Amino acid sequence: MSKLWVLIADSSHAEIVEVEGMGKTISILKHFEHPKSRVKNIHFETDRPGRTNDRAGGQRHAIDSKSNPHEHEKHIFAGELMEALEKAHRNKNFEQFAIIAPPTFLGELNHFMPKQLKSVLLKEVNHDIITIPDSKKRHDLMCKYLDLWNHE
Length: 152
What we know:
Layout: E1 4-9, E2 13-20, E3 25-33, H1 41-44, E4 51-53, E5 60-62, H2 69-90, E6 96-101, H3 103-112, H4 115-118, E7 121-126, H5 135-145
Parallel strand pairs: 1-6, 6-7
Antiparallel strand pairs: 1-2, 2-3, 4-5
Helix pairs in contact: 2-3
């Protein structure tokens, strides 16, 4: 089996682990935190929304914000994670990788994934396991989802 890295993530936490020997050896390589992804939208907005006049009738109303700061922070974090993986792949630190993330964040990661990484993507799993505090349980689930049957 080639060297396999696994990105386990949600919109504000992530870890990259290296798996060797069909799950016999699992090493945590790096932790990522992005606390801004957890901040409520109310903390981002410092002003009232802008106001506008209707063309007819002269009524004033608030302008809806087209961008959501919380979503913007998720985009930033997904881009940072893909950038870290791309750099590691360029440096030949792994041959294949997998992703385990909740469905919405998995979509964000796919949006930022470069073609070079897509070509070495082994598997994507739609589960949120990064929040499991016990790393042994988290890594056991990872092995189960990735069919690494030899993990003890």
